[in-house]
Each structure stands twice: as C-alpha cells, then as structure tokens.
Write a structure and sequence with these properties.
Layout (H helix, E strand, L loop, with lengths): L2 H11 L3 H12 L4 H7 L4 H24 L14
Helix pairs in contact: 1-4, 2-4, 3-4
Length: 81
C-alpha cells in the first residue's frame, strides 16, 4: 500500500480502542449515522463527538510526523476540491 495510507493506518491503530472502533465504523460502513452510532453502542451525538476526537488524534499524529517529532514519514497535503 502507498506510504501515506500505511502511515494513516498506523495512526488509527494507535487510537484508544473506542475511538478506533468509531473511526473504522465511520469510514468503512455505508449507512446513516443512526445505524453507525448503534454499531458503536452510543447515541448519535456521542458518535459524532468520538469521530471528531478520532480524526483530530489521527491528524495530530500525522502532523507530529511531518514536524519530525513523530514516528512516520507521511505528509499532510491540501487536496483540490
């Protein structure tokens, strides 16, 4: 797999288990948010808070790598809309 994908996967693997589960359900399940929240055994509001916390944690890990304080060589980039 491409290096940035590997590094992102590694960052997700370092999340606490609850956030990791929510992130995987969020990105890998094609269903309404109500169903995704049920699969994570939480309310819809809690589900969205956990998604946000997980995304931020992954972003911070990748940012640490970019600034040289982390473990990976993944690079963040802005993609055209």
């Amino acid at each position: 797999m491409p290096e940035p994908v590997l590094q992102t996967d590694r960052a997700v693997a370092h999340l606490e288990i609850v956030l990791r589960h929510v992130i995987k359900v969020y990105y890998l399940t094609y269903a309404p948010s109500e169903i995704k929240a049920e699969r994570c055994y939480c309310s819809r509001a809690t589900f969205w808070r956990r998604v946000e916390r997980g995304q931020l944690a992954v972003y911070q890990r990748l940012l640490e790598a970019e600034t040289g304080t982390g473990y990976s060589q993944a690079r963040l980039q802005i993609l055209p809309a």
